[in-house]
Amino acid sequence: MARREPLNRERVLDAALELADREGLDGLTMRRLAKALGVEAMSLYNHVSNKADLLDGIAERVFGEVERPDPEQPWHEQVRDVARRMYRAFARHPVVPLALVTDLSNPTTVRALQPLDALVGALFQAGFSEVAAWRALGAVNSVVFGSLLLSTGGFTGEGGAHAGEQGVSAYVREMDPVRLPHFSRLMRSTQRGVDPEADFEYALDLVIHGLAASREADGS
């Protein structure tokens, strides 16, 4: 008989992230996780305190996938690299940003915060003040998480589709093009699919250009 690999926090988090990717946040329960690992549910509490600790752990895992930028690059390229890598990492595991934006997860470990630390470091390198860097960080985070929310059906839908696409077709059919000519035109023209990453890149460009303009206006 093959010897079972000892249970540890790393194995628990690996299995939890896989289960959450497949079943969503509601499907990530201690009972289901224990079954996936072939152990009793109570044994999980030797490695994680509760579901919040579990969610923080898998969020830290995904943040850990985000490589830090080259500090020799211009500041705006560093910001772009961090934002782009965050977007792609979270897009691979859409339950993680859902947990973050709904306050189900709030990881505060060094590993989880290193990508944000690198982003803020690039802003300080560019000469942003603490207040300006705080606002810039919020703007970049809004682009990352907002793009995921709007382009993946609430973090859980298929990429390339409108959020809530099942209801979009009926919504467009019932839309009055006379009373809502501009929005109707927009929705009909994009109904067959969009490019979420291209949309994200466009929004990120706008934010970075805006940050550069504000820096120049401040004389930084």
Question: Overview of this structure, please?
Answer:
The chain is 67% helix and 0% strand. The chain has 220 residues and is mainly α. α4 (75-92) runs parallel beside α7 (130-151). The protein is flat, with a radius of gyration of 21 Å. The mean pLDDT is 88.
In short:
The protein is mainly alpha-helical.
Order of helices and strands: HHHHHHHHHH
Could you say which overall geometry the principal axes of the C-alpha atoms support?
Answer: flat
How much strand?
under 5%
Radius of gyration: 21 Å
Low-confidence stretches: none
Tell me roughly what share of residues is in helical segments: 55-70%
Biggest pleated sheet = none
Structural class: mainly alpha
Count of β-strands: 0
The number of helices is 10
| Rounded average pLDDT | 88
